[in-house]
Amino acid sequence: MLVAAAVTVIAVWTGQVLPALVGVLAGALLTRTRLLAVVLVVLAVAGLVRADQSWRSLEPGNLGHFRGWARLVDDPQPYAASTRVILELDGERFEFWSRGRAQQQRVGNWRGGEWVAVDGTRKRLDPKRAQRVAWQHVVGGFELEWASDVHPGDAVARASNRVRAAIERGAEELPAADGALFRGLVIGDDRDQPREMIDRFRASGLSHLTAVSGQNVSFLLAAAGPLLRRLRPWMRWAITLALIAWFVALTRYEPSIVRAGAMAGLSATAFVLGRERSPVRILAVAVIALVLVDPLLVWSVGFWLSVGATLGVSGAGPWIAARLAHYDRTRIFALPVGVTLGAQLGVMIPSVLVFGRLPLVSVPANLLAVPVAGVVMLYGMPAGLLAGCVPALAPVVMFPARLGTRWVDTVSVLGARLEPGATAQLVGWVLVAVVVVVLLAISRNTARTHGDLPADR
After folding, report:
1. pLDDT at 117
2. 97: left (phi over 0), alpha (psi -120 to 50) or beta
3. Which end of the chain is less crowded, N or C, counting CB atoms within 10 A of the terminal residue's CB?
């Protein structure tokens, strides 16, 4: 399935027949299965067709003056001197930048899913800008003249905004920066995080914590588990899919959570059908489905960081952990170290290509921060809702969350300070690789001696 996913991605990403054909031939040679070769051809053709359709859809069908109702695609994103808003006008997405304190304050109160009465002009984007925002399906820019009435939107938008508002009220019990981090950990809302916090989380390799992902979905389903287990299989399946869809809507359809939601839905479906639930296979199927439904996802950095981390954690992580567990001195740390190294291996290529770095401190930083962040994610949703709905309980209810977010942020501060320069960083990663290889070799010899070498996956 990984070969099929790779062929589909190549066809969608390049949009060219020759690279897709090379991918199909390479996949056919690797698998040497006639049926799979046919599947690869079908996926390559589908990928080419969908890629062409998607790029054509970015050509704006309507430009010029617009007056009427516009739907907010997402929450407004604040920056230092402006706020970015994505609006849907007559079925097409346009971005506009709100400037000026009064307008920014008003726009900042808008929420994704709401409808706003606007008047303005639709224009084409600069080609470079159009390329950067293509993954969000933005087809042009919008110059706002005025905005007036606001409608709360449909039932899903109203429900998700009420939940987010309650969590925001609960987070107000924390200091401003901690509250912003809390919302990022629980619902992926990083809009109010200070620039310094964003930089240090990136420098320490912890920025993935503020992007909701499979861990958040797993915690949600685990919390609902006692109720779900009481239901009949197909009813449990239906309710599970509904919960996943609701959480994806709550977190604003971010690429990472869409990927996680797709995998969770596929896993639930495989369970009710009694089929194998290999995480790597499910990831491959999810990638194929998602890039065919929305080919522009291949241009989302967040999507590839999420896919890479998941592949590393579910593929390389258990393989490394199983071998380190055969060495007495690393047995205790085998699983967390294996999973962390697997995740870093999975995000290595997109991190280096996009951000120009792969923090060396990310391994110890993740070992220290991820378990505590997981507790905040699991505890934060019910605690934030309770604190937001019953303010009198907020100081007590939010105190554990305050300790957790402070710990995670402290780890990011120390990690950013301890991260070495580029040369030392490269040398450090080489040493890490050498140590891991040596430990794997020792564990392999130990396993052979005892006759319990784990099978390769």
Report:
1. 94
2. beta
3. C
